[in-house]
Specification:
The complex is a heterodimer of chains A (109) and B (115). Chain A is an all-beta fold and 109 residues long. Helix content of chain A is 0%, strand content 57%. In chain A, the strands form 2 sheets. In chain A, strands 2, 4, 5, 9, 10 and 11 form a 6-stranded mixed beta sheet that branches. A 5-stranded antiparallel beta sheet of chain A has the order 1-3-8-7-6, with no helix packed on it. Chain B has no helices and 11 strands. In chain B, β5 and β6 form a beta hairpin. The chains are: A mainly beta (109), B mainly beta (115).
Chain lengths: 109, 115
């Protein structure tokens, strides 16, 4: 079956760095997405990786290793507004997104 | 301003009621999606429409009935729901659903409570 695993919850301190991991097993791979979802709001797109390596976008970076079925989202210089859930999703061979349950990130002052 | 809107934002209904959820996208996309999001569970894809044609129905019970009159509008008709159907229902759109790099854009969702 298809499976996406990510930690349920993480806590970090304002100004620090946090890494949210995601491992996946899917039927085919057409890329991996990270979305951010604040409570009560729509998920919003953060990043897309299809090749191995690190993609940097401001304070956020996303890494992919296809051979290991592994990705992480790295958030630097954490701000209180970064408190949200972070969703990992893989595009499978049918161009459908397979989603993880999300990681709730709590930022403390 | 979001490119995908959903109404209503909140809905409470009894198990014998009939209601409809509405989604509209202003992004010029040709693919639209309904997802169910339950607490601490992954998003579940329910239906996919490409160019107004339903291309996916992920074993969704018949008490959920989708309708896509054009590429900009998507409805989810609800009837005789069960309490376990209480969840956040999210609508999304993308360019045409055929590319791996295609980003899906989400609406704010309808929070549904079935009593």
């Amino acid at each position: 079956g298809q499976n996406i695993d990510q930690p349920t919850e993480m806590t970090a301190t304002e100004g620090a760095i946090v890494q949210i991991n995601c491992t996946y097993q899917t039927s085919g791979f057409n890329g991996l997405f990270w979305y951010q979802q604040h409570a009560g709001e729509a998920p919003t797109f953060l990043s897309y990786n299809v090749l191995d390596g690190l993609e940097e976008k401001g304070r956020f970076s996303s890494f992919l290793s296809r051979s290991k079925g592994y990705s992480y989202l790295l958030l630097k210089e954490l701000q209180m507004k970064d408190s949200a859930s972070y969703l990992c999703a893989v595009m499978d061979s049918n161009y459908q997104l397979i989603w993880g349950a999300g990681t709730k990130l709590i930022i403390k002052p | 301003e979001t490119g995908v809107t959903q109404t209503p934002r909140h809905l409470v209904m009894g198990m014998t009621n009939k209601k409809s959820l509405k989604c509209e996208q202003h992004l010029g996309h040709n693919a639209m999606y309904w997802y169910k999001q339950s607490a601490k569970k992954p998003l579940e894809l329910m239906f996919v429409y490409n160019f107004k044609e339903q291309t996916e129905n992920n074993s969704v019970p018949s008490r959920f009935s989708p309708e896509c009159p054009n590429s900009s509008h998507l409805f989810l008709h609800l009837h005789t729901l069960q309490p376990e159907d209480s969840a956040l229902y999210l609508c999304a759109s993308s360019q045409d659903g055929t590319s791996g790099s295609e980003t899906q854009y989400f609406g704010p969702g309808t929070r549904l409570l079935v009593l």
